[in-house]
Amino acid sequence: MNPEKARLRAEYRALRAKLSPEEVAKAGEQVTARLRELEVLRSARTVFSYVEFGREVPTRPILRELLQAGKLVVAPAHDRLLDQYRCFHFLSLGDPLLEGARPDEDTPDTCDLFEIRDAQVFLVPGLVWDERGWRIGFGGGYFDRILAQRSPNSVAIGLAYEFQIIPRIPLDPWDRAVDLIVTPERVILTAPNVSFGR
Description:
Layout: H1 3-17, H2 21-36, H3 39-42, E1 46-49, H4 60-68, E2 72-79, E3 84-90, E4 121-124, E5 128-130, E6 135-136, H5 142-148, E7 155-159, E8 165-166, E9 180-182, E10 187-189
Parallel strand pairs: 1-2, 1-4, 4-7, 5-8, 7-9
Antiparallel strand pairs: 2-3, 5-6, 9-10
């Protein structure tokens, strides 16, 4: 394990844990408002996203809006026996995951068939980010493996609190960057050769 990554992971997990529910909710509202402005998300047919738990940047509000707009929204499905995310779950309005169920405990037992390359947009969590689009997650490599399989025409959007953005993150060969990062304060384009529209 990369010791610098481990240090950053522990430091920023502790910082995030200090956020109050009100701060998390406010940040979620601001990030949701910025996501609404992105043409790449409005025009997507299929979106792959995490469902937040703990003090991750909230996704439930934007996921409900995407479903109401008729989009297919896919989330990681948790395998209770293996205690890992190993397959996929198609979200629907009224889904327990959108009503507050913990995604690491309460994902339905069945898996939905889904090809990663079919998603046009990915909403990606992280503990620490840099402005080049690199991230440090919880250390399991799940989203790096997902992003390694995505279509080259897709767009990966990292969701972050502003304090999670640092100058540079140490990299491992398996790491995958996102194309832009949305925080409550701004949208950071990390792939300058791509136009995302607003």
